[in-house]
Specification:
Structural class of chain A: mainly beta
Distance between the termini of chain A: 36 Å
Number of strands of chain A: 13
Largest sheet of chain A: 10 strands, antiparallel, barrel
Low-confidence stretches of chain A: none
Distance between the termini of chain B: 97 Å
Strand order of the largest sheet of chain A: 1-2-3-6-7-8-9-11-12-13
Largest interface: A-B, 48 and 59 residues
Mean pLDDT of chain B: 94
Order of helices and strands of chain A: HEEEEEEEEEHEEEE
Oligomer: heterodimer
Shape of chain A: elongated
Low-confidence stretches of chain B: none
Number of helices of chain A: 2
Helix content of chain A: 10-25%
Chain lengths: 275, 343
């Protein structure tokens, strides 16, 4: 927990100082915007520490984001959360059967359908430095990203708080539209998953406390390989208001304790209000 | 034109995102051979008692793997798995097929011990209790007479907060009694921390009652550091009069760690039959065919460092009714407990 707080405070402080110095340079007035988004995402996940089956989620998600842009910098913060079904491919109708016997030896068979759900959350905070000149804005930035994946059967249970390198390009199309693409790869993260033995009980801590204490470690590119690609298109529909659509693809490969791989496609619509 | 490029790019990305085999590359296919391999490897990586039980897992692979082929049916696979896991003699080792008609594949006593004959709730309620109430889905309590109270639980599933309130109420209700019978003969398991808390409601001093350690690596002797479990006096007050703890072969898992904790209390007398002998936490894995594999991951010991896995906690006073006695309304463990409390 101390490491999480340290990474978060250090990075947020750095981003804040950089943003302030940019403001104080007085290059131009910043443009601020607040956005709302909602969409659908589908995640495929193989957690070899818990299952030989490949799970697929069908999630709906919603979120909010904030942008502040100057000639030299671009600040982006977002928060989103999703929820949905989380079922292994090909096992939509799986049942577990239990048999109990009364004292006379008469069996009673019960069956329960095996279902599971997933909750996800994603918080990111990026400060970009703009470089290059021309019609396309090129940016490189540092992202602090917190990802949480909670499943009620513990498959793929995962948390990560880390720093990523993000590249972004955006371009105006005519007077009303713009497109952008961003690519992000993590550099270092405090990653948490269930310990080797997949249980999280200890005498004096809660399950979540044990999860974070026993399952956390600092991961670099050798342990956690991830790439996130975002594509976005926005169009002004009213003065100060834009509507847009976005697509994102995330691939993740975690190598401890056993392999956890996933990829996710996400599509969303969004509306942006200029502040 | 630009829009066409954009559309092509998005279509390409969706296609990329659809390449499940390439991106995830699962290790196993859903074949009988792969299911056997997966089961064997999972126990190899996670099972916590190879050393305690002196199991040569590699030799069992060599003996059973040839009995499975790619054409083996579910029933044939189930038979070979049963013969394989039988060698554990561990009630926490089992496989749950998710196929109608196939029953749980079990190891240990649970493989053959299906019918509990030494206890019947109706026998106790109809023949021994002057009054009884159900506090919640898992807790019953009452009185045999003004001097003897009765508490029964069938699983440690409630949150500790709930148990705190429940035992405040129940122990307050039984505060005028001179002793309690605590019946866990049908307690199948649950949360060890809740078991410890409830044992603490009867404790007057701190005692080490158990140690545990869990697998943390691929070698059979790869373990996390040992955890020491202490029972402490819990709650705003404790019941410090004699307690007769009734156990049996169906007292399992957290019911047994509860028994270890209670037995550190000198006012507790364990009566009945030996507990099942399956203490460890269990993790659940999924096999390529969707079946569920239960794997005990721990090495649990009593306060003296002795593993009772496969053995159980023996009672101080043995008392077990036969099926006919139980059906006739007689409960020998209850009789023994009442006799001690009324002496």
């Amino acid at each position: 927990m101390k490491s999480i707080i340290f990474i978060a405070v250090w990075t947020l402080s750095s981003v804040y100082i950089l943003a302030q110095s940019d403001e104080m340079a007085g290059q131009d007035k910043s443009q601020k915007a607040l956005g709302l988004r909602a969409g659908f995402q589908s995640r495929h996940l193989l957690d070899e520490q818990k299952s030989a089956l490949t799970y697929q989620s069908t999630e709906i998600f919603a979120g909010v984001f904030y942008r502040r842009e100057t000639q030299r910098s671009f600040l982006y913060a977002s928060l989103s959360a999703g929820k949905g079904k989380f079922i292994p491919d090909g096992f939509n109708h799986r049942w577990i059967y239990t048999t109990e016997y009364d004292i006379y030896g008469v069996p009673k068979i019960d069956s329960v359908r095996i279902l599971s759900q997933l909750i996800s959350a994603d918080i990111q905070f990026t400060w970009f430095w703009k470089f290059g000149s021309g019609k396309t804005d090129w940016m490189a930035g540092t992202t602090v990203r917190e990802m949480l994946l909670y499943t009620d059967n513990n498959t793929g249970l995962f948390n990560s708080l880390g720093i990523a390198l993000t590249l972004r390009a955006s371009r105006q199309i005519g007077n009303k539209s713009d497109i952008s693409a961003a690519l992000s790869v993590p550099l270092i993260s405090l990653t948490t998953r269930l310990p080797w033995h997949n249980t999280a009980t200890s005498p004096d801590k809660s399950e979540s406390g044990t999860f974070f204490k026993k399952g956390s470690r600092l991961t670099g590119p050798s342990d956690l390989r991830m790439v996130k690609l975002d594509l976005e298109y926005n169009c002004k529909v009213l003065p100060g208001i834009s509507l847009g659509a976005a697509y994102s693809f995330t691939y993740m490969h975690l190598t401890y304790f056993q392999t956890l791989k996933s990829y996710m496609n996400s599509i969303q619509i969004q509306t942006i209000y200029r502040l | 034109m630009k829009n066409k490029y954009l559309a092509c790019l998005i279509a390409g990305l969706f296609a990329l995102g659809s390449c499940e085999e390439a991106l995830l590359s699962p290790e196993y296919e859903n074949t009988a051979v792969d299911n056997f391999e997966c089961i064997w490897k999972n126990y190899d990586l996670y099972y916590g008692q190879f050393l305690v039980r002196n199991i040569n897992w590699d030799s069992l692979y060599a003996g059973y793997r040839p009995k499975i082929s790619h054409t083996s049916s579910d029933e044939e696979l189930a038979k070979v798995i049963h013969d394989l896991i039988w060698h554990f003699h561990d009630d926490h080792v089992f496989i749950d097929p998710t196929v109608k008609g196939l029953k749980r594949i079990e190891s240990g006593r649970s493989d053959t011990m299906k019918i509990q004959t030494d206890f019947l709730a109706e026998t106790v309620e109809n023949n021994y209790l002057a009054m009884s109430k159900q506090y919640s889905g898992h807790i019953w309590y009452g009185k045999i007479n003004e001097k003897i109270g009765y508490v029964r639980m069938d699983v440690f599933a409630d949150p500790v907060d709930f148990a705190e309130k429940a035992f405040d109420d129940i122990l307050e209700f039984l505060s005028e009694t001179s002793g309690i019978i605590f019946d866990i003969r049908k307690l199948e398991g649950g949360d060890d921390r809740l078991a410890r808390y409830i044992a603490g409601r009867f404790a007057s001093e701190r005692s080490l009652y158990m140690t545990s350690r869990k697998r943390n690596g691929p070698r059979h002797d790869d373990f996390e550091s040992e955890i020491r479990w202490y029972v402490n006096p819990e709650g705003s007050f404790q019941y410090t009069k004699p307690v007769m703890l009734l156990t049996g072969r169906f007292t399992a898992s957290a019911g047994e760690t509860f028994t270890l904790a209670m037995n550190r209390n000198r006012r507790v007398t364990q009566i009945g039959d030996t507990t099942l002998g399956a203490f460890s936490d269990v993790m659940s894995m999924e096999l390529p065919n969707g079946w569920l594999q239960a794997i005990p991951v721990g090495d649990y010991r009593n306060h003296e460092g002795i593993s009772l896995e496969g053995i159980g906690v023996a009672p101080e006073i043995f008392a077990r009714s036969t099926k006919n006695e139980t059906l006739a309304g007689k409960d020998k463990a209850m009789d023994a407990a009442i006799k001690i409390l009324t002496e």
